[in-house]
Structures are given as C-alpha cells and as structure tokens.
Design goal:
This is FAD-binding oxidoreductase. It comes from Aminobacter anthyllidis. This protein has helices at 13-17, 42-53, 86-93, 95-118, 139-151, 163-170, 189-203, 250-255, 316-327, 371-386, 391-397, 407-427; strands at 10-11, 31-38, 58-61, 126-132, 158-161, 178-186, 206-208, 215-219, 222-227, 230-239, 257-266, 281-284, 291-294, 300-308, 336-346, 353-358, 361-365. With 428 residues, it is of the alpha/beta class. Helix 2 packs parallel to helix 7 (189-203), helix 2 (42-53) runs parallel beside helix 10 (371-386) and helix 3 (86-93) crosses helix 4 (95-118). It is globular, with a radius of gyration of 21 Å.
C-alpha cells in the first residue's frame, strides 16, 4: 500500500514518484539543544540543515512525516519575486524596499537550485513559467509588467505574449494574453523535501518524525517544547508549521489562515499533445488562481479548487476535471490517476509572516502560494539570524501583516465569505 498523508486529503502523484522516502525515528526522551525547530517542511528542514552545517546543536520535530503538509504536496512552481508584482510593492513600500524584496526573492530562487545541485538532489527542474490573463482587460497590465521588470527591476527574462502566442504556447484559446518568464521554472517538491532531510541528517541535525509538539514556553532565557515522550530545552525556537499550527501558538494562528488547494494528475498525454508544448508551468489571473504544468513524464498536473478552513473536500477528481475541461475541452475524458490536496498558509495582504512571537521564538509562514522558493530560503535566513546577522530577515519581519478579523471564532467564516466574493468576481 502506498503511503497516504494522515493530515492532507488524497493520494498525491508526488508520493508515488518520489523514490525511496526514508523514515526517521520519533523523539523518545528529553533533549538539550541550541535551537529547537517545530515543523518538518521546507522552512524547518532548510533551517536545520544550515544550522547543523554551521555547528549548531539543532533538534527538529515533525508531527507526522516530512512533507506531509504543503511542502510535499504543492504545485511545484517557483515563480519570480514576491507574491505581489514588484511594481505593486513599489507603490506600497517605495522603490528601495520593493527592489530589496525582489532581489531577496531572486536570491532565494538561485539558492534553491544551487542547494539542490550541490547536494545531488534531483528535483525534476523544468524551466519556464507563463502567467496568463483570464479577462481581456488585464492584458495591458501584463504587457506593462514585462516592460517594468526589465527597465526598473533589472529582470530581462519576462516577455509579453499576445493572444495568439499565448494560445500556441498553452495549446488553448481560453486566455487572452500574458507573460512568459524564462528565468524560473518548476520542480517535484517532495523530492526536495526528502533530499533536504537527508542533507540535514548528514550534517548532524537531530531530526524526528511522528513527534507532535504539545506546548511551547519561553521563560528565563530558555525555550521548552513539550512532546508526548520528552521535552526539548533550547536557547531558541523556530516555529515552521505554517498552515498546520492549529492552536500551538496563538499569534501565528491569528495571522496565518489555512487554505486547502487541490491538484489532479492525468495519465501521460503523449509526445504529440498540444498542451504546453514548451513544458512551462502556468498560473492565471484569477484571485482563486488556477495553476498547472506538465510533469517530466508528460502528465498534466492541474491545481485550482480551493477551500478555506481545514475540512477535507470530497470528489477532488470531479472538480479538477471540470476546471481542466474549461481550458482543454479535448481532455474532458482524460484519465485522472491522482487527486490530492494540502493546506497552504495565507495572510491578509498575501505577504510572508515572520515574527518573534515570544522571547527567543520566531515563527515563519504565510507564504500565500509563493512558498516553494521563499520558504527554503527563509530557513537559511533564520540560520543567519541565529549566527548573529538579522539584517536580511528584518526586511521580512518589518512587513505589516495584520491579523485576520473576527478572532478565532469568526475569522474562518468571514474569510470564506470574502474569498467566495472574489471567486464570484473571477467569473464576472
């Protein structure tokens, strides 16, 4: 029987194709450490790796298996820059800060690819990403964006596509134009999780699966993290649970909301398929974004249905097939071999959340759909912070991230209403 994540719905194609997935022991007994990390996804494993390589005594615990959350189940797209376009950030924060945030994200992209290559992790990297407009009135914005990226942000890799070029590169006439970015690409995320865990363990990090945190306290210069079978006492703590924090820590929970996003994988479409002949990944202009790409073996991996809150969806295949058919009518009867989901963390302004939530305890998350690239790098920035250089992390910490309105009782229904309103606007 293939392994099935107990915290995320459906059986993912990634789990079936990632190759050997080593198991790590559960924590049994008390531990002393310099740093304790809660969460075994991209952020936590990256931080553990860089800390251990610097000689830090680090203990990482994961409630289930590494990659069971969004890190091992996401769309695999790297993107470029932050979640918002660079010119949008410039309008809000000014050019200097917007350029610094863009450059940080570009460094994150380079770091992910260099880290994977240097450590022999085959992440199935495929180059190229297209961003496409689902309404004609958005096309001029995409054209301007390509020009701004080259002229103001020194990024010449984005080119504008008119409707004809978009149709040719997508194999679909559903969209009206967009951009093509040859400076980024897409990956097999679970292979990156597995590889990073291997590197962390080899570097000397003490990493444990199936070990849930039952509480965090910070007092007298010591952080204590309790688990069912032992307490970890450390100088510092990183909370890297993102959408899966539950009631573990209230400040993070107030600022990071879980969103369920779901993906279907088709059978291989064949070498003669007109679907995305260049192999790029695709995201569209909907607020409830649709994102899709072809795998190395020619399957269409299509994501698009979102729910808000943490109730498992039913009939993933049915909803994903409906969205595939809107864009590719010829695939209305294609076999969908896998359907799965995972919960990503979003914030109100769709910017990352990094904050010291109690003395010596930093929480990271809320990547808002841009986490494949950013989360791995944020783990590195956390290791820099522990080593005494907090300057680059401060760039993220200083972003204004308000809590979701409504408190714990009402924030989920309020968000559900708001985001369904945006979903309705996508169709109008």
């Amino acid at each position: 029987m293939p392994y099935h994540s107990p915290i995320s719905p459906g059986l993912s194609w990634y789990e079936d194709t990632a190759g050997p997935r080593p198991e790590y022991p559960a924590l049994d007994g008390d531990r002393q450490a310099d740093v304790v990390i809660i969460g075994g996804g991209f952020t936590g494993l990256s931080a553990a790796t860089h800390l251990a390589k610097a000689g830090t005594n680090v203990v990482l615990i994961e409630a289930h298996r590494f990659g069971d959350g969004a890190s091992g189940r996401n769309g695999g797209q790297l993107g470029t820059g932050q979640r918002a376009w660079a010119e949008e950030l410039e309008g809000e924060l000014g050019f200097t800060r917007a350029k610094a945030l863009f450059d940080l994200a570009e460094e994150a992209k380079a770091h992910l690819l260099e880290f994977s290559a240097a450590n022999g992790i085959d992440i199935d990297y495929m180059p190229g990403q297209m961003s496409v407009a689902h309404k004609p009135r958005y096309v001029d914005d995409y054209k301007a964006h390509a020009e701004i990226m080259a002229s103001r942000f020194n990024y010449p890799h984005v080119s504008f596509m008119d409707a004809q070029e978009t149709a040719e590169r997508l194999g679909s006439t559903h969209y009206h134009g967009g951009t093509r970015d040859i400076g980024t690409g897409h990956i097999h995320p679970l292979k990156l999780v597995i590889g990073t865990a291997r590197v962390a363990a080899a570097a000397g990090a003490h990493i444990f699966e199936n070990t849930q945190s039952t509480g965090i306290t910070s007092q007298g210069g010591k952080v204590r993290v309790t688990t069912p079978r032992g307490t970890i006492t450390a100088q510092k703590c990183l909370i890297a649970v993102n959408a899966y924090g539950g009631t573990l820590e209230p400040v993070s929970a107030a600022h990071i909301m879980p969103i369920g996003s779901f993906i279907g994988a088709t059978v291989p479409l064949g070498a003669d398929s007109p679907v995305i002949p260049g192999g790029e990944s695709v995201d569209d202009s909907r607020f409830v974004v649709r994102y899709f790409r072809k795998s190395r073996d020619g399957r269409l991996l299509f994501g698009g249905r979102e729910i808000y809150g943490v109730n498992d969806p039913k009939d993933i295949h049915i909803h994903i097939r409906r969205q595939i058919t809107e864009i590719y009518p010829a695939l209305k009867d294609v076999d969908i071999t896998h359907g799965w989901g995972g919960y990503v963390g979003i914030t109100v302004p769709r910017k990352p959340f990094v904050r010291e939530v109690m003395p010596n305890v930093i929480s990271m998350g809320g990547y808002s759909g841009h986490g494949v690239m950013l989360s791995n790098f944020f783990g590195k920035l956390y290791a820099e912070t522990v080593a005494g250089n907090r300057d680059r992390l401060k760039l993220i910490e200083e972003l204004k991230i308000p809590p979701f309105p409504g408190g714990r009782r009402f924030r989920t229904p309020l968000l559900f209403l708001a985001l369904n309103w945006f979903a309705l606007r996508d169709r109008i």
